[in-house]
Amino acid sequence: MIRIAALCLAVFFGSEANAQGRIGERFITLSSTTSTEESGLFGHIIPVFRTMHGISVRVVSVGTGQALAIGERGDADALLVHDRAGEDRFVASLNGIDRRDVMHNDFIIVGPKSDPAGIRVQTSAREALARISATGGSAAGGSAAGGSAAGAVFASRGDDSGTHRMEIRLWKSANLAPNASNAWYREVGQGMGPTLNIAAALNAYTLTDRASWANFKNRQNLEILSQGDPILFNPYGSILVNPAKWPHVKSADARIWHEWLTTKPGADAIASYRIAGEQLFFPATSSPAVTR
Questions:
Q1: pLDDT, average across residues 168-194
Q2: pLDDT at 25
Q3: Contact 90, 96 (CB under 8 A)
Q4: Model pTM?
Q5: Minimal CB count within 10 Å: which of 40, 49, 50, 79?
Q6: How far is CA 30 from the centre of its chain?
Q7: In sequence order, what E strands does the chain have?
Q8: What are the residues facing 275 on neighbouring strands?
Q9: Phi-psi region of 257 (alpha: psi -120 to 50; beta: other; left: phi over 0)
């Protein structure tokens, strides 16, 4: 009985010590887009930062719109997002300070190998989407699983993410505004990985950042069909949540992360991340010509 009691006490106090260690951990909360998480980038660069500075980075991975909203509530210490217009509004509203360019890559349009919209020859993203719309509209009576053999289906993230905001701008540039009333246009309200899974299941087209695509394994019949348009340039920015508005934020440690991320040590970590030998994020000091 004495041994059992001693063992129970050891387990209890050991658990308490571990809990206290977790509570006492030095960390910041980073609100960020799903693409940086799902691409595997954070799994590569955050351990490098933690080793150098002893600060953990707890990532809240959501769409850029949600990430900005989290920052507006003061529920994060820093942001890493990819919607420049939204970022500028965030800073102008005094929710954030010291917005800096971090890195870039590009968006691509992926779709079924059969390519019913015939966009494979298109380098213009606007024209590619116009063809998808025209082909999808002509097959509105197709099957629920993805239209007729001649029809196109488009899977939209529909989640106010940076990718979704880019998609909306692209539709507008083509003088189009598809929505859920269009049978061929599927708003999924999910992150990039789930959206790609749905596109693969439906043999649908979708817009994705190149890094998420490179790390996506369930491609089935999907492949890259349109790329290289300069309009698909995809920059990421780092913003500190404004401590003057939200005094409780960990502004000192967030500043250490911000400085590291936007100077040579962070740039080197970002540039060293690769999937199958391919560099997927380019530090802001690199040339924006990353399209293939």
A1: 93
A2: 86
A3: yes
A4: 0.82
A5: 50
A6: 13
A7: 27-32, 56-61, 78-81, 96-112, 154-156, 185-187, 206-209, 222-226, 233-241, 274-275, 278-279, 282-283
A8: 278
A9: alpha
